[in-house]
TrEMBL record, chain A:
<keyword id="KW-0810">Translation regulation</keyword>
<keyword id="KW-0699">rRNA-binding</keyword>
<dbReference type="GO" id="GO:0000049">
    <property type="term" value="F:tRNA binding"/>
</dbReference>
<dbReference type="Pfam" id="PF10037">
    <property type="entry name" value="MRP-S27"/>
</dbReference>
<keyword id="KW-0820">tRNA-binding</keyword>
<dbReference type="GO" id="GO:0005763">
    <property type="term" value="C:mitochondrial small ribosomal subunit"/>
</dbReference>
<keyword id="KW-0677">Repeat</keyword>
<dbReference type="GO" id="GO:0005743">
    <property type="term" value="C:mitochondrial inner membrane"/>
</dbReference>
<protein>
    <recommendedName>
        <fullName>Small ribosomal subunit protein mS27</fullName>
    </recommendedName>
</protein>
UniProtKB/TrEMBL annotation, chain B:
<dbReference type="GO" id="GO:0005739">
    <property type="term" value="C:mitochondrion"/>
</dbReference>
<dbReference type="InterPro" id="IPR032053">
    <property type="entry name" value="Ribosomal_mS34"/>
</dbReference>
<keyword id="KW-0687">Ribonucleoprotein</keyword>
<keyword id="KW-0689">Ribosomal protein</keyword>
<dbReference type="GO" id="GO:0003735">
    <property type="term" value="F:structural constituent of ribosome"/>
</dbReference>
<protein>
    <submittedName>
        <fullName>28S ribosomal protein S34, mitochondrial</fullName>
    </submittedName>
</protein>
<dbReference type="Pfam" id="PF16053">
    <property type="entry name" value="MRP-S34"/>
</dbReference>
<dbReference type="GO" id="GO:0005840">
    <property type="term" value="C:ribosome"/>
</dbReference>
């Protein structure tokens, strides 16, 4: 999007991350400090022994204990062993005990990956969480996001935020703020997105800001709903909610307008940033312009079997002028 | 009968071994419920799915296709079925308590799950195994929408208590009352509570009626 007004207004302190040694980033140094974690009491095991034990157990088709894999991940000491641990994580996930993979194992796996410079490995296992069973908790997500923010790799951080969104673990305020920061930095760098990216961006913006009642929160909700409404009108409702933590009731642009109405009715200081409103306006206008084109196509399509999906698209398209009129009414009134 | 049963130890042992091997090599959930999406056939039995399910199979997901993406396989989350969403207005959902995934599946796409069922607003108190897990029919309720989804105000059911008699019986009862000299002021009605409470005793005493 054009003007990074939102970014500057909210994230003034975060703009110069990692510039000077005295400069503080979003998370304090004590948060990501790993000295306490290094000092924790670990069981010393030989990795070769553990690997041999696990291989034997898998050969005999017996279940491997989750403690074995935990010990393996704890005792990683070099980059090659990170690869071996990844293999054993895969095997554990495809064993009868896959449900019992512990939280601390996942946490120490991510920590070890970051310690030995294997962040691409961590990201790969996180993206294929179905195959590796990596479901980090809030603390681990914060550390991972902070690592990528400090390295200014916003695409990788964006994929981490997508994973947080798919797991719906935006419980802590720190996670929400970090992910919103990453989202806006990513939006500032790239303006052209494929529809899947837009859908992920929209869902992450909405979920990250649902519990916040501030300017940032409401603007992000509006922005997210605008993106989702655009995907809904272009690709259909099913493309929005399939395999995503979103509701299957149609009307995402309606929800965007409801956010605006809520903000207008609140007596506090929270407002919505112009950037989000501009985004909504461009989307509504593009929808209205595209409307005369698909009209004839929709008449033909209405006779086919896909009457259900065509109906919802038709009602949304027909509601678009109504949305636009409500939208125009809002900024003038509020 | 004719003669004593022969004791065949080797055949008994062979039977046991066959049963053991059948148990060890039984087709797992992932093999039984795998599906070829182009021909809509199960590879194991070569049977085709019913035609009305084809559209759902293309559009929706199995339960474990949703659960495998969640931490701890979605224990504690709410899931619904699309067929329930379309059929009933009241909320129908399962709250998952225990999951046993089929580890032979490549994408952890199959397994068994247990939970509490809430059907049409009424929640059950016992954990049951989730039925029709392999149907392509499931949807996950997002956490922020769970409360709104589960909200339900039960409408009190209208129960009927008094029913009129059928006309011939009514005429017979009125004729009986007239014969006995009872003043006819009200209609003879069936009291359903009495009828349904004690069916056995009602069968014993039968009132007399006058043929009309």
């Amino acid at each position: 999007m054009a003007a990074p007004v939102l970014r500057r207004a909210v994230l003034r302190s975060g703009r110069a991350l990692g510039a000077g040694p005295g400069r503080r980033s979003l998370l304090s140094a004590a948060y990501v400090d790993s000295s306490k974690w290094e000092k924790r009491q670990k069981e010393e095991h030989n990795l070769a022994d553990l690997a041999h034990l696990m291989d034997r157990t898998y050969e005999r088709k017996l279940p491997v204990s989750s403690l074995t894999i935990a010990r393996f991940v704890d005792n990683i000491s070099s980059r090659e062993e990170v690869d071996q641990a990844e293999y054993y994580l895969y095997k554990f996930r495809h064993s009868p005990n896959c449900w019992y993979l512990r939280d601390w194992t996942i946490h120490s796996w991510i920590r070890q990956c970051l310690k030995y410079g294997a962040q691409d490995k961590a990201l790969y296992t996180l993206k294929n969480k179905v195959q590796y069973g990596i479901f980090p908790d809030n603390f681990t997500f914060n550390i991972l996001l902070d690592y990528f923010i400090k390295q200014k790799k916003y695409e990788d951080a964006m994929s981490v935020v997508t994973e947080i969104m798919l797991q719906e673990s935006f419980d802590e305020l720190s996670t929400q703020l970090l992910s919103l920061y990453v989202l806006y930095q990513y939006l500032a760098t790239k303006s052209d997105h494929a529809w899947e990216e837009e859908r992920n961006l929209g869902a992450s913006l909405v979920l990250a800001s649902l519990k916040q009642n501030s300017t940032v929160g409401f603007s992000s909700q509006l922005y997210g709903y605008a993106f989702l409404g655009k995907v809904e009108l272009n690709k259909g409702l099913r493309a929005v909610y399939n395999l995503m933590p979103l509701m299957w009731t149609p009307g995402y642009l309606n929800r965007a307008l409801q956010v605006m109405e809520i903000v207008a009715s609140l007596s506090g200081d929270s407002k919505i940033c112009k950037e989000a409103i501009d985004a909504l306006e461009t989307i509504l206008q593009s929808v209205l312009e595209a409307k005369p084109g698909p009209d004839s196509a929709e008449e033909v399509k209405g006779l086919e079997q896909k009457s259900q999906s065509a109906e919802s698209e038709e009602t949304e398209q027909s509601k678009a002028p109504e949305y636009y009129s409500r939208f125009k009414f809002k900024p003038s009134g509020a | 009968m004719a003669r004593k049963k022969l004791h065949r130890p080797i055949a008994a042992m062979a039977k046991k071994i066959r049963e053991y091997r059948a148990l060890k090599e039984r087709p797992r959930d992932s093999q039984r419920f795998a599906l070829d999406y182009e021909t809509m056939r199960r590879p194991l039995t070569q049977k085709r799915l019913p035609v009305r399910a084809w559209e759902d199979v293309r559009n929706e997901n199995r339960l474990f296709a949703l659960l495998c993406r969640l931490p701890r396989f979605g224990v504690g989350r709410t899931v619904t079925r699309k067929s329930w969403l379309w059929a009933h207005d009241e909320p129908c959902y399962w709250v998952i308590t225990k999951v046993k995934a089929d580890y032979t599946a490549e994408d952890m796409d199959h397994g068994r799950a247990w939970g509490y069922l809430t059907f049409r607003g009424k929640t059950e108190e016992e954990v049951r195994e989730i039925d029709k897990v392999m149907y392509h029919d499931w949807r996950m309720v997002p956490k922020h929408e769970e409360e709104a989804f589960k909200k339900f105000t039960p409408v009190p059911e209208e129960t009927v208590r008094f029913l009129p008699y059928p006309p011939l019986l009514r005429a017979m009862i009125l004729a009986q009352w007239q014969k006995e000299g009872k003043p006819i002021t009200e209609e003879p009605v069936i009291d359903l509570q009495k009828v349904l409470a004690t069916p056995r005793e009602r069968a014993k005493k039968k009132a007399t009626g006058t043929p009309v």
